[in-house]
Design a protein that fits this description.
Low-confidence stretches: none
Structural class: alpha+beta
Length: about 120
């Protein structure tokens, strides 16, 4: 029986409507200083990019998105953004902030995901 795996992305942003509005304005007014590269690459002014949504839907993972104020307490020291594969309650980091910050386009982020998840995709 195949164990359910979850792919969890954690944004370098706060949750909530107020924060979302501030982030929305920040990305328009000063996109080069916006702190969350994952948000910048995967979301436009009108929501999640279709290419990203389609890519995630094709993965053999349940996907979940958290914010730095909603992430598990034991991961609070993790530099963000980051991505983890979660199996049987164990969180294994598969992408770190440095890698994700270098992925400045959707294509480069998808390529990073493919590379980082290769061993999980083959299983």
């Amino acid at each position: 029986m195949r164990q359910e795996r979850e792919l969890c992305f954690i944004y370098n942003a706060q949750s909530g409507v107020g924060h979302a509005l501030i982030d929305y304005v920040h990305k328009i007014v000063s996109p080069n200083t916006y702190a969350c590269s994952l948000c910048s690459v995967t979301y436009g002014n009108l929501g999640m990019h279709r290419g990203w949504a389609k890519y995630l839907k094709g993965l053999p993972f349940k996907t979940r998105f958290l914010y730095k104020d909603t992430m598990p307490e034991n991961l609070q020291d993790t530099a963000l953004p980051a991505a983890f594969v979660v199996m049987a309650g164990e969180w294994k980091q598969v992408m770190n902030d440095s890698q994700m910050n270098k992925a400045t386009t959707l294509d480069s982020l998808i390529s990073l995901c493919d590379k980082s998840l290769a061993s999980y995709l083959a299983a």
